[in-house]
Known about the structure:
The complex is a heterodimer.
Chain A: H1 7-23, H2 26-34, H3 43-52, H4 70-83, H5 89-100, H6 104-114, E1 120-123, E2 137-141, E3 144-155, E4 162-168, E5 179-185, E6 191-197, E7 203-214, E8 219-220, H7 227-262, E9 264-265, E10 268-269, H8 274-302, H9 308-334, H10 345-357, H11 362-372
Parallel strand pairs in A: 1-4
Antiparallel strand pairs in A: 2-3, 3-7, 4-5, 5-8, 6-7, 9-10
Helix pairs in contact in A: 1-4, 4-7, 5-6, 5-7, 7-8, 7-9, 7-10, 8-9, 9-10, 9-11
Chain B: H1 3-18, H2 45-56, H3 75-87, H4 97-109, H5 112-123, E1 129-132, E2 148-152, E3 155-166, E4 173-179, E5 189-195, E6 201-206, E7 215-226, E8 230-231, H6 237-253, H7 264-273, H8 284-312, H9 320-343, H10 359-367, H11 377-388
Parallel strand pairs in B: 1-4
Antiparallel strand pairs in B: 2-3, 3-7, 4-5, 5-8, 6-7
Amino acid sequence: MPLFLDDDQTMLRDTARDFVADAAPVKHLRALRDADDPTGFSRDLWRQFAEMGFTGILVPEDQGGLGLGHVEAGVVLEEIGRNLSPSPFLATAVAAVAALKGTGAGERWFPGIVAGETVAGLAIDEGAKHRDAVALRAERSGNGFRLSGAKRFVAHGHVADLLIVSARTAGAPDDADGVTLFAVPRDAAGLTADAERLADSGIAARLTLDGVEVDADAVIGEVDAGRAVLDRLLGAGRVGTSAELLGVGGGAMDMTLSYLKQRKQFGTVIGTYQALQHRAAHLYAEMEVARAAVLKAQQLLDAGSDKADEAVSVAKAQATAAAALSVQEGVQMHGGIGMTDEYDIGFFMKRHRVLAEWFGDANYHADRLARLAGY
Amino acid sequence: MTEIETFRTETRAWLAENCPPEMREPVRSDADVCWGGRRFEPSSPAQKQWLDRMGERGWTVPDWPTEYGGGGLTPAQTKVLREEMAAIRARNPLNSFGISMLGPALLKYGTEEQKLDHLPKIARGQIRWCQGYSEPNAGSDLAALATSAVSDGDDYVVNGQKVWTSYADKADWIFCLVRTSKDSKQGGISFVLFDMDSPGVSTKPILLISGYSPFCETFFDDVRVPKANRIHDENKGWDVAKYLLGHEREMISGMGLGGGGRNPLIEGAIATVGLDHDGRLADPLLRARIAEFEVRARAFGAMSERFIDELKAGRAHPAQPSMMKYYGTELNKQRHELAMAAGGSDALEWESERSNGGAAPRAWLRTKANSIEGGTSEVQLNIVAKRILELPGA
């Protein structure tokens, strides 16, 4: 398989590009922020995603979805990134669906997700930095389980209809085994969500689970064998954030390049200065390399390759680093105007910072790569 | 089974049968690299066997047409062959400027006679080529070259000097840029081929900081070159030169990839620094630097695959080789800086048998030329800024 988008994927990209730029451009984000919108995204827009078929992009065709892969999901995510569109697409249609696929819990939740009615939150992280340990306890109780503990950085967690919760059913927090994933409805008793506005004006929740009772059918996959489910979720989330970062970095780079071609100082367009040209060319190279790494990881995940794991960490680390350079150079090359709230480039910097942390930052993934390589 | 799967199965079986075990060992020094040529002395019978077997199938140049000694493979088949060779860590059967630089230019600009004359000999490793581009006063500003070719009947008479001519002292033929007109800078250059045994050609190796002499000064004193050996029209050589440079940059960018399979950088660091009780390199800052480097190296590996796929499909930006050359060579320099830091005082030994004659420090010093030869990193960034990013006045 060649490492570029095929004709169908290119058509999907063109469709997604037009749709997202039209329905949710950067001014949509700005309007939500200025209105101090308590949801953090537009439910109407989410239903439009459903009308386009995007909500079911990873859902199997016989369950009402499009039955496509991570390459296609990434095509949509890149456009979301380019427009900084606030959307539950990554958490719900990509990461949650990847976790639920092939499980009984999936049968229950897929119709609502595909219809654009259900939004999912990912209750995975327990500390300020993404780590592998899972401490939140789930103990057997009657026919089901009782969950106790806390999660944080749960995007859309304050309004999500469904929460995917990683919990420990056996062993110690650092053990690989003994993890179980649960599909917990938002209205479960004992579940509280404190909404926190983030730097990029999106909203994530700190969740407290105080003896939350769930039925046995809330288990995603098998009890104690949830690490495989969690790995599916994390793999999807990591390539997903990587693809969105390509959009954020690419959008910022495009803005910066067009500014270099119009802004005049010392009587000439600043894009004629070699000091800026070389930095712009270097940025282009980093973004191109990141694009290749992301597509490689998506293809390997879709093929079920045993090399996907490492490729996913390479993609997340490289895309995070390349987009970081893009937003930082973007603000610097815009000069004073780049520091103003009125101008959009700052929004790109803030979204990058959030995506950089989600599902593990560049250091986490470089370290993970080293561990996998045995050093 | 699809056609390509059948091809993969057959290729795997053929390689298993025909690639000698010694040719699956990592390359340790330049002596292990097969360059071919009239004066080729194989370092082992296996090296010769591997070259001949691959050459017979045209697989030294798998995607060239069969009538010119190639394998006639499609892009998809070529990719499969490359993947299957990598899977058994097969060495490249033939390293050649003829394959990586002159061949593509001949395929595009050569006459049928020129193609039939030169390409099969390149494919079989019978003629070793060198590149006559840079001059003492024409480095980054290559088109300022002054080596003159004056018309005299059916010949040109060539006079002048080239520099940084890789392996000129070992090469059989040269592809050379000469000035046929002073009326125009780029528009006065022609691209000619001639035998290095021609009367009036002399070479002088240049001793480098690595202690090796891979480059030469090359002198031409009334060298007679038949006009039939000119590629493309007179004064149109710059088109050929630029096209060829794209392929040269592609080749040099591949240096950023390192080898497949085992990773000498990581193995070297483990050997000198050791692992702690958690199985991590015992020097946490060195480990972090290597891990960050590995992210970039692997990402660039994906970029190389993407670039080749796009190139074969005719989808690559024509200036993309400049990006590849810039990134790949900077990466290769970093790899060797890290290898030196990991090696400590072991990596300083310059002559000992234990150090394989100072292979590590000499290779480290050699990489410093990567971002100079074939157009400096700064020139590549200029090209990217101008032709890809379309920044003004670049």
